[in-house]
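Thread: quick sanity check before group meeting

JM: Hey all, I'm pulling together slides for Thursday and realized we never actually wrote out the predicted structure for the chain we discussed last week. Dropping the sequence here so it's in one place. If anyone has concerns about the input, flag it before I start.
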Amino acid sequence: MIKAGIVGGAGYTAGELIRIILNHSQVELDFVYSTSNAGNKLYAVHADLLGDTEQDFTDTINKNVDVLFLCLGHGNSTSFLQNNTFSDSTKIIDLSNDFRLNADMVFEGKEFIYGLPEVRREEIKKANYIANPGCFATCIQFALLPLAKAKKLGNDIHINATTGATGAGVSPTSTSHFPWRDNNFSVYKPFTHQHLGEIGETLEGLQESKTGELFFIPNRGNFSRGIFASIYTKFDGTLEEAKEIFTRFYAEAPFVHVTDAPVNMKQVVNTNKCAISLIKHGDNLLIYSAIDNLLKGASGQAVQNMNLMFGFEETEGLHLKGSAF
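JM (edit): ok, ran it. Output follows.
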């Protein structure tokens, strides 16, 4: 058994992470750090944990845990690691965007590997520090990675993707609270979303040359969780050839599923899966990709990375069941 610590324990991703770790056969939850909730039961914030644990939040840190998960707001992981030291043997998985760019970032002697298991499995196994990919970035990359590997992304790529309210975090904002979000739909950060950088780096690394330009329109949906992306680009080949490229690329990926049937978001919500389907229209290949933003887009992927880092079965603790209703 290894011991895990979580910093920033009150948010949505931390809640999912706690739930997974409590049911993981190889991991003991050592502490959940939250200064604002210290002394409160975990289930006082994460109500779904009622009956699963009597553990409290804490404002103290065990610097010798085997693995540390950082579930802090963007920009805060850097300052936390500057102010807190951990054992040389402690592996760190950061769920913010602090260390995702510039391929593999070195911060105060720590080399953070971009943790997308479907393309970097062997490097993750050897890594001590992981930059967990962003949720939009994960969903969109899964739709494009096989084409990049096949050197087929020479044309512009058009992306329209919608995320649920949990993607905005637990702190209410003018565009995330219920009266605004309910029965509403909106666009934000068109063409400039922060996940474009990590998407471009991964795709160009696989294709070994510059891809076509990424035109990304992110949307806010009036649902709680999940991401659904519709992506199209020119493709010089048949639909059958495209399917062969995708199924071959994901042959060893336990959570990515390419299907002939149309995908929908409820297939993947509350799971660590990504569902992908393809349509050929004239010269364009249309790719649908769907994930749960809190699991495959955050905490589930973080645990998948942890499993690889410690030599556990990659799927351990992640046989999470979704629902069609």
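AS: nice. The mean pLDDT is 94. The CA atoms of residues 85 and 321 lie 37 Å apart.
JM: adding both to the slides.
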